Amino acid sequence: MLRFDDLQLFVRAADLGSLSAAARVMDMSAAVASAALKRIEQQLGARLLARSTRSLRLTAEGEGFLEYARAALSQLDEGRRYLSSAQDQVSGILQLSAPSDFGRNLLLPWLDEFQREHPKLTVRLLLGDRIADLFRQPVDI
């Protein structure tokens, strides 16, 4: 499986035209960058960059793979942003079970305020005077 950092290094090296410049930007040594490039080329079974001590250029395989690498990194960033935005907000469905008097007199006013603070959260309040079976009923609390 390709490593995210290796893919980033390949794209940066292609953009900058230098493996050592990409290593500096990614805060790694040139030796680590070289090993990462070898690793990704070995895993793909293709030479992506032709390099010498003074120059670096994309091979035909590298040019073809570059757009896929960019798309993969973009999708990963998008997924990361989605997850981080989802963690910033309380959302989903919360199902509560409570005795009738407790629910009406104490929980309802509190739940109204709670839902104003968290508009993406749906709260279902099940009121009843029987003992709730938390394993059989679809109840969170």
UniProtKB/TrEMBL annotation:
| Domain (HTH lysR-type): residue spans on this chain | 2-59
Q: Does the keyword Nucleotide-binding apply?
A: no
Q: What family does the database annotate?
A: Belongs to the LysR transcriptional regulatory family.
Q: What is this protein called?
A: Probable RuBisCO transcriptional regulator
Organism from which the protein derives: Solanum lycopersicum (Tomato)
So what does this one do? Trans-acting transcriptional regulator of RuBisCO genes (rbcL and rbcS) expression.
Q: Give the Gene Ontology MF terms in alphabetical order.
A: DNA binding; DNA-binding transcription factor activity
Q: Which UniProt keywords apply?
A: DNA-binding, Transcription, Transcription regulation
Q: Which domain of life is it from?
A: Eukaryota
Tell me which Pfam families the record gives.
Answer: HTH_1 (PF00126), LysR_substrate (PF03466)
